[in-house]
Amino acid sequence: MQHLDVLIVGAGPAGIGMALALQKIPDLKFGLVERGRIGESFRRWPLETRFITPSFYSNPFGLADLNAVNEHSSPAHFAAMEHLSGELYADYLNMLVQVHKLPVVTGCKVLEVNTTAAKEFVLETEQGPLSARYVIWATGEYQFPDLQAFTGADYCVHYAQVATWKDFTAPRYTVIGGYESGVDATVNLIKQGRQVRLLVRKASWDRQSDDPSVALSPYSRERLAQAMQSGQLEVIFGVDVTKVSQQDDGSFLIEAADDRNWQEQHQPILATGFVNGGGAQQIARLWEWDEAGKIMLTEADESTLTPGLFLVGPQVRQEDRIYCFIYKFRQRFAMIAQNLALCMALDSSQLDPEPGVWGPFGNSECCEGCEC
């Protein structure tokens, strides 16, 4: 059985970014396992979906690309695009793996994780067992849609199940949910010439907060404003959907808590997000969960229940701070790497000394002709 100091589970932006940080620690033996392909979640995005956070190659002037997972690379520079598709972003991640020779094993699904009396981890995978002193869980959330948001939610098509909006050829659709995925579905359906009924609890585009973790991003707000001028969009507010059922004639009935209801000839589109904890639900017993269904972590992003198990990615929460965007959760990589180096008495001098590496003038040594 192969033994590692640190094993990362998941080869998306959180896993690849974390691996690049660990690579700066000399003599550390680490690896990554990924059940699908590198950047698998992004490769499953609808064909038309684009990043809501813009990419820009500002690295030589000390400001890292918002969607980069390390300090010196730039998705904008790689793809020559500001708002990348999922496929292009996955290709960017794969480029980093190749350039930095990261030890990633794809097609390696983790089946079970157990702890030993020696306070180590044993992971059963489709390619055999692995053991590690520390495990970093980086499985994201996109592949874990919430399909039980209300009774009959399984009658709907979840945003994460859509390959392309070109497949939706009916004259009209109803979209349930008014945050990023709901607005993106609406905008792309209207581009296909469809009429859209959008059911929302509240207007997520109202400027009650400037944090895109809780309010609609400027990119989506701008596109929604254009959609509202199209004459193809009906927005209905104050809707708390409680049930969807299929009628004898094959149509669908959408019911709300205030007794309003709507008939729809085609499957409603569900844009109500992902399960709490995302992929961390695969090892739910190793985490402590709060009353809201969020994972409880130490200040070091370590499980409060299982020492040595860390979480990186969009499910990380620290008090009121929500790290659900790449430009947010990437700032945790160096901190975790430093703590691991300290625990194993390894040299951490090559790691970033402070979070400011991602901010103004943090990348001054990056040259315009670098390989990444």
From TrEMBL:
A single MF term (Gene Ontology): oxidoreductase activity
Residues annotated as transmembrane: none
PANTHER family, per database record: THIOREDOXIN REDUCTASE 1-RELATED-RELATED
Name listed for the protein in its UniProt record: Glutathione reductase
Oxidoreductase recorded as keyword: yes
Protein keywords: Flavoprotein, Oxidoreductase
Gene3D superfamilies: FAD/NAD(P)-binding domain
Short name of any one Pfam family annotated for the protein: Pyr_redox_3
Species per Swiss-Prot/TrEMBL record: Methylophaga muralis
Lineage of the species this protein comes from: Bacteria, Pseudomonadati, Pseudomonadota, Gammaproteobacteria, Thiotrichales
